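Q: what does this look like with phosphoenolpyruvate bound?
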Amino acid sequence: METLDLSPIARVAGTVKLPGSKSISNRTLLLAALASGATRVRDLLDSDDVQHMLSALGLLGVKIEPLAGRDFLVHGAGGAFPVKSADLFLGNAGTAFRPLTAALALMQGQYRLSGVPRMHERPIGDLVDALREAGADIAYLANPGFPPLAIAPAEFSAGKVIPVKGNVSSQFLTALLMALPLTGETVAIEVVGELISKPYIEITLNLMARFGVKVERDGWQRFTIAGGQAYVSPGEIAVEGDASSASYFLAAGAIAGGPVRVEGVGRASIQGDVRFAEALEALGAKVTLGDTWIEVAKGDTEKLKAFDLDLNHIPDAAMTLAVAALFADGPCVLRNIESWRVKETDRLAAMAIELRKVGAEVDEGRDYLKVTPPSRLTGGASIDTYDDHRMAMCFSLVALGGVPVTINDPRCVAKTFPDYFDVFAQLAQ
Ligand SMILES: O=C(O)C1=C[C@@H](OP(=O)(O)O)[C@@H](O)[C@H](O)C1
Ligand SMILES: C=C(OP(=O)(O)O)C(=O)O
């Protein structure tokens, strides 16, 4: 196994130009592929999750031309993919797997969708149930409720209310929202029960609107797409920097001096994870926001302030707070994060095990984590990363506690941020 030894870092400061947002990159690629007209996508993220979406769209017959840097020209297929039979491998990319499942269910073709073994343990039953309710023909190829899936042609009758559960992943609602305009009919989606990770739905609605499709909404309960709408290229979309990736650098600034500035997200961002900055403020950090940048410096106290926060709205950046808790002046509680259990790994279990290795006392609840920081961090811990990019990135912050730390299998960061550790190293003073 490859390992990365991080030496203690006394102080951080500097500016980071963020890689593109995963959530915006994959949504934009799919919408551009489904639209009529060509879309220039600027600053696309270069990572495994996006590569899976690009490869899949290529196999589906969508022409995507690389331009300079990370700009691409997507030639929209005008509502229907040209290829009617394909076998797609989507790695562990939820933002590719879930939306493509919904779009392909409407394509009158034969498709097979699979991923890495962990993807086959991540639930998709609530999305399949919703699509079947509207007539889709989707079969489970292994375990009911989980990928891999086989999709066959079917008579789709969306002219009614489609119920979908939103308490396991918001990506199911996102998938339905993006796909259903392809029917051309008026269709309503009713969220049954609680909806988690709500800000991701705002990203979906914002990007759909830029491609010309309006959704009428009744709060978080009901979403209606009027018939007769179709995706039309806006010509160009610039991908914002990734707000979840920003969280590691911003936390570093709060813990170890700063100022650290991230460029590419700010007040004007459509990503919910920019609200990580508010959480850091609650922990006592000095936070300044511009339209397209955020800067964080350590506050007036030696340690961060202990916190007790509901983090359902920022599930990805919340992982950064779990490690930041090591630097707090008392026990910290992260609440309402049960969805962590069905992501790249069971993140509640993994986080508890690895935080204990550096000396924290951790109480792992069904949907919460209570982290009591140690008086001194244990040096030289060997951190397992569970093929979870965020585990690897979060635990780099341990080096700011004056101790060395080893990150096992550091290349798992390729899912969203292949050169994360190089960028992190540049902040060390
Ligand atoms: O829609 C999206 O882009 C995402 C939604 C979130 O998932 P859940 O809705 O499953 O929490 C988030 O964790 C994921 O990284 C990206
Ligand atoms: C949960 C994540 O990914 P996915 O899009 O595969 O759900 C993540 O990036 O933290």
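The pocket of shikimate-3-phosphate (ligand 1) is lined by residues 23, 94-95, 169-171, 174, 196-197, 200, 315-316, 339 (CB under 6 Å). The first helix runs from residue 22 to 34.
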